[in-house]
Amino acid sequence: MEDKKIIRGKTRKGKTEKKIGLISKIGFLRILFFYFLMAMMSFAGALNLEARGLEAGAAASTQLVLLGTGTPNCEPDRAGPAVAIIVDGVAYLVDCGPGVVRRAVAAFQEKKLEALKPERLGYVFITHLHSDHTLGYPDLIFSPWVLGRDKPLQAYGPPGLKKMTRHLLKAYQEDISVRLYGLQPVNREGYQVRVHEVKEGLVFQDERVKVEAFPVRHGAWPYAYGYRFQSRDKVIVVSGDTRPCPELKVYARGCDILVHEVYSAAKLKERSLEWQRYHQANHTSGEELGKIAQEVKPGLLVLTHQLYWGATDKELIQEVKAYFPGPVVSGRDLMVFKGIRD
Ligand SMILES: [Zn+2]
Ligand SMILES: [Zn+2]
Prior knowledge:
Layout: H1 2-12, H2 16-51, E1 63-68, E2 82-87, E3 90-94, H3 100-111, E4 123-125, H4 131-134, H5 137-146, E5 153-157, H6 161-171, H7 173-181, E6 193-197, E7 201-205, E8 209-215, E9 225-231, E10 235-238, H8 246-252, E11 257-263, H9 265-268, H10 273-282, H11 286-296, E12 300-307, H12 313-321, E13 328-330, E14 336-337
Parallel strand pairs: 3-4, 4-5, 5-6, 10-11, 11-12, 12-13
Antiparallel strand pairs: 1-2, 1-14, 2-3, 7-8, 8-9, 9-10
Helix pairs in contact: 1-2, 11-12
Bound molecules: zinc ion (ZN) (2 copies).
Protein backbone atom coordinates (compact mmCIF):
# COMPACT_ATOMS: atom_id res chain seq x y z
CA MET A 1 0.00 0.00 0.00
CA GLU A 2 2.61 2.53 1.03
CA ASP A 3 4.76 1.79 -1.99
CA LYS A 4 1.83 2.41 -4.33
CA LYS A 5 1.12 5.76 -2.70
CA ILE A 6 4.72 6.77 -3.04
CA ILE A 7 4.74 5.73 -6.71
CA ARG A 8 1.65 7.84 -7.40
CA GLY A 9 3.01 10.82 -5.53
CA LYS A 10 6.32 10.71 -7.23
CA THR A 11 4.85 10.05 -10.71
CA ARG A 12 2.91 13.28 -10.38
CA LYS A 13 6.20 15.08 -9.94
CA GLY A 14 7.38 13.56 -13.23
CA LYS A 15 10.51 11.77 -12.04
CA THR A 16 9.10 8.26 -12.52
CA GLU A 17 12.13 6.21 -13.58
CA LYS A 18 14.54 7.51 -10.97
CA LYS A 19 11.96 7.15 -8.18
CA ILE A 20 10.95 3.60 -9.16
CA GLY A 21 14.60 2.62 -8.94
CA LEU A 22 14.81 4.15 -5.49
CA ILE A 23 11.59 2.40 -4.41
CA SER A 24 12.77 -1.03 -5.46
CA LYS A 25 15.98 -0.40 -3.54
CA ILE A 26 13.92 0.49 -0.47
CA GLY A 27 11.85 -2.68 -0.96
CA PHE A 28 15.01 -4.79 -1.23
CA LEU A 29 16.44 -3.23 1.93
CA ARG A 30 13.16 -3.89 3.74
CA ILE A 31 13.28 -7.56 2.80
CA LEU A 32 16.90 -7.74 3.89
CA PHE A 33 16.05 -6.10 7.21
CA PHE A 34 13.13 -8.50 7.70
CA TYR A 35 15.37 -11.54 7.21
CA PHE A 36 18.02 -10.02 9.48
CA LEU A 37 15.38 -9.56 12.19
CA MET A 38 14.15 -13.13 11.78
CA ALA A 39 17.70 -14.50 12.00
CA MET A 40 18.45 -12.44 15.11
CA MET A 41 15.22 -13.62 16.76
CA SER A 42 15.93 -17.29 16.15
CA PHE A 43 19.57 -16.84 17.26
CA ALA A 44 18.43 -15.15 20.48
CA GLY A 45 15.87 -17.92 20.96
CA ALA A 46 18.54 -20.59 20.59
CA LEU A 47 20.84 -18.78 23.02
CA ASN A 48 18.03 -18.43 25.51
CA LEU A 49 17.21 -22.15 25.26
CA GLU A 50 20.84 -23.02 25.79
CA ALA A 51 21.18 -20.63 28.71
CA ARG A 52 18.32 -22.20 30.60
CA GLY A 53 19.29 -25.73 29.60
CA LEU A 54 16.05 -26.32 27.69
CA GLU A 55 14.45 -26.90 31.03
CA ALA A 56 11.08 -28.51 30.71
CA GLY A 57 8.02 -28.68 32.88
CA ALA A 58 6.09 -31.84 33.63
CA ALA A 59 4.78 -32.10 30.06
CA ALA A 60 3.52 -35.32 28.53
CA SER A 61 6.42 -35.63 26.06
CA THR A 62 9.58 -37.60 26.75
CA GLN A 63 11.93 -35.96 29.20
CA LEU A 64 15.54 -36.47 30.11
CA VAL A 65 16.61 -35.85 33.70
CA LEU A 66 20.24 -35.76 34.75
CA LEU A 67 20.27 -37.43 38.14
CA GLY A 68 24.04 -37.61 38.47
CA THR A 69 26.73 -36.11 36.27
CA GLY A 70 29.72 -37.04 38.40
CA THR A 71 32.82 -39.18 38.00
CA PRO A 72 35.01 -41.12 40.44
CA ASN A 73 36.38 -37.70 41.50
CA CYS A 74 33.53 -37.37 44.02
CA GLU A 75 32.64 -33.72 43.49
CA PRO A 76 30.16 -32.99 46.28
CA ASP A 77 27.53 -31.33 44.08
CA ARG A 78 27.52 -34.13 41.50
CA ALA A 79 26.07 -37.52 42.27
CA GLY A 80 27.41 -40.58 40.47
CA PRO A 81 26.43 -41.19 36.84
CA ALA A 82 22.70 -41.71 36.33
CA VAL A 83 20.07 -40.31 34.00
CA ALA A 84 16.34 -40.89 33.82
CA ILE A 85 14.35 -40.96 30.61
CA ILE A 86 10.71 -40.40 31.46
CA VAL A 87 8.04 -41.52 29.03
CA ASP A 88 4.35 -41.20 29.89
CA GLY A 89 5.06 -41.11 33.59
CA VAL A 90 7.46 -44.06 33.68
CA ALA A 91 11.17 -43.59 34.40
CA TYR A 92 13.84 -45.64 32.68
CA LEU A 93 17.19 -45.12 34.37
CA VAL A 94 20.58 -45.42 32.77
CA ASP A 95 23.25 -46.27 35.34
CA CYS A 96 23.01 -45.98 39.09
CA GLY A 97 25.97 -44.13 40.52
CA PRO A 98 26.15 -43.26 44.21
CA GLY A 99 23.29 -41.04 45.37
CA VAL A 100 20.89 -42.15 42.63
CA VAL A 101 17.77 -42.60 44.77
CA ARG A 102 18.24 -39.36 46.69
CA ARG A 103 18.70 -37.47 43.41
CA ALA A 104 15.52 -39.10 42.07
CA VAL A 105 13.64 -37.89 45.14
CA ALA A 106 15.12 -34.41 44.68
CA ALA A 107 13.90 -34.39 41.07
CA PHE A 108 10.46 -35.51 42.22
CA GLN A 109 10.27 -32.83 44.88
CA GLU A 110 11.84 -29.94 42.99
CA LYS A 111 10.61 -30.64 39.47
CA LYS A 112 7.32 -32.35 40.31
CA LEU A 113 8.33 -35.46 38.37
CA GLU A 114 6.09 -38.15 39.86
CA ALA A 115 7.85 -40.85 37.83
CA LEU A 116 10.90 -40.37 40.04
CA LYS A 117 9.20 -41.20 43.32
CA PRO A 118 11.40 -43.96 44.76
CA GLU A 119 8.66 -46.60 44.83
CA ARG A 120 8.16 -46.07 41.10
CA LEU A 121 11.79 -46.70 40.09
CA GLY A 122 11.41 -50.02 38.29
CA TYR A 123 13.88 -50.07 35.38
CA VAL A 124 17.62 -49.56 35.05
CA PHE A 125 19.93 -50.00 32.07
CA ILE A 126 23.55 -50.28 33.18
CA THR A 127 26.26 -49.24 30.74
CA HIS A 128 29.16 -51.07 32.38
CA LEU A 129 30.15 -52.38 35.78
CA HIS A 130 32.62 -49.69 36.85
CA SER A 131 31.98 -48.81 40.49
CA ASP A 132 31.21 -45.14 39.81
CA HIS A 133 28.26 -46.29 37.66
CA THR A 134 27.00 -49.04 39.99
CA LEU A 135 27.64 -47.99 43.59
CA GLY A 136 24.02 -46.90 43.68
CA TYR A 137 22.81 -50.31 42.50
CA PRO A 138 22.16 -51.67 46.03
CA ASP A 139 20.51 -48.31 46.78
CA LEU A 140 18.21 -48.81 43.78
CA ILE A 141 17.49 -52.40 44.83
CA PHE A 142 16.71 -51.78 48.49
CA SER A 143 15.66 -48.15 49.16
CA PRO A 144 12.64 -48.16 46.80
CA TRP A 145 11.56 -51.52 48.30
CA VAL A 146 11.61 -50.12 51.82
CA LEU A 147 9.62 -47.13 50.51
CA GLY A 148 6.95 -49.29 48.91
CA ARG A 149 8.04 -50.67 45.55
CA ASP A 150 6.19 -53.97 45.30
CA LYS A 151 7.59 -55.31 42.05
CA PRO A 152 11.07 -56.66 41.27
CA LEU A 153 13.53 -54.19 39.78
CA GLN A 154 14.14 -54.89 36.08
CA ALA A 155 17.89 -54.51 35.50
CA TYR A 156 19.53 -54.62 32.06
CA GLY A 157 23.26 -54.59 31.56
CA PRO A 158 26.43 -56.33 30.44
CA PRO A 159 27.47 -59.88 31.24
CA GLY A 160 28.60 -59.94 34.85
CA LEU A 161 25.49 -58.12 36.09
CA LYS A 162 23.85 -61.36 37.23
CA LYS A 163 26.87 -62.24 39.33
CA MET A 164 27.06 -58.74 40.81
CA THR A 165 23.36 -58.83 41.68
CA ARG A 166 23.65 -62.24 43.30
CA HIS A 167 26.54 -61.05 45.44
CA LEU A 168 24.72 -57.89 46.48
CA LEU A 169 21.61 -59.79 47.53
CA LYS A 170 23.85 -62.12 49.52
CA ALA A 171 25.70 -59.20 51.10
CA TYR A 172 22.40 -57.74 52.30
CA GLN A 173 20.89 -61.07 53.37
CA GLU A 174 20.68 -60.05 57.03
CA ASP A 175 18.86 -56.84 56.13
CA ILE A 176 16.42 -58.70 53.90
CA SER A 177 15.67 -61.29 56.61
CA VAL A 178 15.16 -58.74 59.37
CA ARG A 179 12.80 -56.69 57.22
CA LEU A 180 10.89 -59.70 55.91
CA TYR A 181 10.55 -61.58 59.18
CA GLY A 182 10.58 -58.74 61.73
CA LEU A 183 7.79 -56.37 62.56
CA GLN A 184 8.28 -54.11 59.55
CA PRO A 185 5.32 -54.06 57.16
CA VAL A 186 7.00 -54.89 53.88
CA ASN A 187 6.19 -56.71 50.65
CA ARG A 188 8.06 -59.78 49.41
CA GLU A 189 8.68 -58.73 45.82
CA GLY A 190 10.24 -55.28 45.85
CA TYR A 191 13.81 -56.25 46.79
CA GLN A 192 14.03 -58.84 44.05
CA VAL A 193 15.80 -58.18 40.77
CA ARG A 194 15.12 -59.57 37.32
CA VAL A 195 18.48 -59.34 35.61
CA HIS A 196 18.76 -59.28 31.83
CA GLU A 197 22.31 -59.52 30.51
CA VAL A 198 22.24 -57.93 27.08
CA LYS A 199 24.05 -57.97 23.75
CA GLU A 200 24.00 -55.42 20.95
CA GLY A 201 20.55 -54.70 19.49
CA LEU A 202 17.02 -54.44 20.82
CA VAL A 203 17.05 -55.20 24.54
CA PHE A 204 13.70 -53.87 25.71
CA GLN A 205 10.40 -52.76 24.28
CA ASP A 206 7.07 -51.83 25.79
CA GLU A 207 4.19 -49.59 24.69
CA ARG A 208 6.19 -46.49 25.60
CA VAL A 209 9.77 -47.04 24.53
CA LYS A 210 12.16 -49.16 22.52
CA VAL A 211 15.68 -49.54 23.91
CA GLU A 212 18.71 -50.69 21.94
CA ALA A 213 22.15 -51.40 23.36
CA PHE A 214 25.31 -50.80 21.37
CA PRO A 215 28.89 -51.69 22.24
CA VAL A 216 31.26 -48.85 23.08
CA ARG A 217 35.00 -48.91 23.72
CA HIS A 218 36.04 -48.30 27.28
CA GLY A 219 39.60 -49.33 28.01
CA ALA A 220 39.93 -52.91 29.18
CA TRP A 221 36.20 -53.56 29.71
CA PRO A 222 35.10 -56.52 27.59
CA TYR A 223 31.50 -55.27 27.70
CA ALA A 224 30.52 -51.62 27.86
CA TYR A 225 27.37 -50.28 26.25
CA GLY A 226 25.62 -47.13 25.20
CA TYR A 227 21.82 -47.08 24.96
CA ARG A 228 19.45 -45.63 22.38
CA PHE A 229 15.91 -44.85 23.57
CA GLN A 230 13.21 -44.31 21.03
CA SER A 231 9.84 -43.09 22.27
CA ARG A 232 6.84 -41.74 20.38
CA ASP A 233 8.34 -38.27 20.15
CA LYS A 234 12.06 -38.57 20.71
CA VAL A 235 15.33 -40.43 20.26
CA ILE A 236 17.74 -40.06 23.17
CA VAL A 237 21.17 -41.67 23.14
CA VAL A 238 23.38 -42.11 26.21
CA SER A 239 27.02 -42.82 25.48
CA GLY A 240 28.09 -44.47 28.71
CA ASP A 241 31.87 -44.28 29.19
CA THR A 242 33.71 -44.57 25.90
CA ARG A 243 36.54 -43.37 23.74
CA PRO A 244 35.45 -42.32 20.23
CA CYS A 245 33.99 -45.32 18.45
CA PRO A 246 32.13 -45.95 15.18
CA GLU A 247 29.29 -47.85 16.88
CA LEU A 248 28.12 -44.77 18.75
CA LYS A 249 28.04 -42.76 15.53
CA VAL A 250 25.77 -45.35 13.93
CA TYR A 251 23.28 -45.45 16.81
CA ALA A 252 23.35 -41.72 17.60
CA ARG A 253 23.02 -40.38 14.05
CA GLY A 254 20.33 -37.70 13.87
CA CYS A 255 19.10 -38.28 17.43
CA ASP A 256 17.21 -35.58 19.31
CA ILE A 257 19.46 -35.59 22.37
CA LEU A 258 22.91 -37.10 22.74
CA VAL A 259 24.14 -37.39 26.33
CA HIS A 260 27.87 -37.91 26.08
CA GLU A 261 30.79 -38.17 28.48
CA VAL A 262 33.72 -35.80 28.01
CA TYR A 263 37.11 -34.71 29.34
CA SER A 264 39.12 -31.53 28.83
CA ALA A 265 41.60 -32.02 25.99
CA ALA A 266 43.60 -28.98 27.15
CA LYS A 267 43.93 -30.16 30.76
CA LEU A 268 44.76 -33.75 29.83
CA LYS A 269 48.10 -32.45 28.54
CA GLU A 270 49.01 -31.45 32.10
CA ARG A 271 48.55 -34.99 33.41
CA SER A 272 51.19 -37.72 33.60
CA LEU A 273 51.84 -39.82 30.50
CA GLU A 274 50.30 -42.88 32.20
CA TRP A 275 47.06 -41.01 32.88
CA GLN A 276 47.07 -39.54 29.38
CA ARG A 277 47.28 -43.04 27.95
CA TYR A 278 44.54 -44.24 30.28
CA HIS A 279 42.09 -41.47 29.47
CA GLN A 280 42.73 -41.63 25.74
CA ALA A 281 41.87 -45.34 25.81
CA ASN A 282 38.81 -44.90 28.02
CA HIS A 283 37.20 -41.53 27.42
CA THR A 284 36.42 -38.81 24.87
CA SER A 285 37.93 -35.32 24.81
CA GLY A 286 35.94 -32.17 24.08
CA GLU A 287 37.61 -31.88 20.68
CA GLU A 288 36.90 -35.51 19.82
CA LEU A 289 33.30 -35.08 20.93
CA GLY A 290 32.96 -31.98 18.74
CA LYS A 291 34.06 -34.03 15.73
CA ILE A 292 31.64 -36.84 16.63
CA ALA A 293 28.75 -34.38 17.00
CA GLN A 294 29.69 -32.72 13.71
CA GLU A 295 29.08 -36.09 12.02
CA VAL A 296 26.15 -37.32 14.08
CA LYS A 297 24.29 -33.97 14.21
CA PRO A 298 22.24 -34.41 17.39
CA GLY A 299 19.45 -31.89 18.00
CA LEU A 300 21.06 -31.18 21.35
CA LEU A 301 24.33 -32.34 22.87
CA VAL A 302 24.45 -32.70 26.64
CA LEU A 303 27.84 -33.14 28.28
CA THR A 304 28.03 -35.36 31.33
CA HIS A 305 30.62 -37.28 33.37
CA GLN A 306 32.82 -34.22 32.80
CA LEU A 307 36.46 -34.65 33.71
CA TYR A 308 37.41 -31.00 34.16
CA TRP A 309 40.79 -31.18 35.93
CA GLY A 310 40.47 -27.43 36.49
CA ALA A 311 38.84 -26.50 33.19
CA THR A 312 35.54 -24.59 33.23
CA ASP A 313 32.24 -25.53 31.61
CA LYS A 314 32.81 -22.71 29.13
CA GLU A 315 36.20 -24.11 28.13
CA LEU A 316 34.79 -27.62 27.72
CA ILE A 317 31.97 -26.30 25.53
CA GLN A 318 34.47 -24.28 23.49
CA GLU A 319 36.44 -27.45 22.72
CA VAL A 320 33.26 -29.05 21.41
CA LYS A 321 32.07 -25.94 19.59
CA ALA A 322 35.31 -25.70 17.63
CA TYR A 323 33.83 -28.50 15.50
CA PHE A 324 30.10 -28.64 16.30
CA PRO A 325 28.03 -25.48 15.77
CA GLY A 326 24.81 -26.93 17.23
CA PRO A 327 23.45 -26.50 20.75
CA VAL A 328 25.64 -27.83 23.57
CA VAL A 329 24.85 -27.81 27.28
CA SER A 330 27.30 -28.81 29.99
CA GLY A 331 25.09 -30.92 32.25
CA ARG A 332 24.57 -30.48 35.98
CA ASP A 333 22.58 -32.67 38.33
CA LEU A 334 18.80 -32.23 38.16
CA MET A 335 18.69 -30.53 34.77
CA VAL A 336 15.60 -31.56 32.80
CA PHE A 337 15.52 -31.54 29.00
CA LYS A 338 12.90 -31.96 26.36
CA GLY A 339 15.05 -31.38 23.29
CA ILE A 340 15.51 -28.49 20.91
CA ARG A 341 13.19 -29.81 18.23
CA ASP A 342 10.08 -29.52 20.41
ZN1 LIG B 1 32.62 -43.52 34.72
ZN1 LIG C 1 33.82 -46.36 33.32
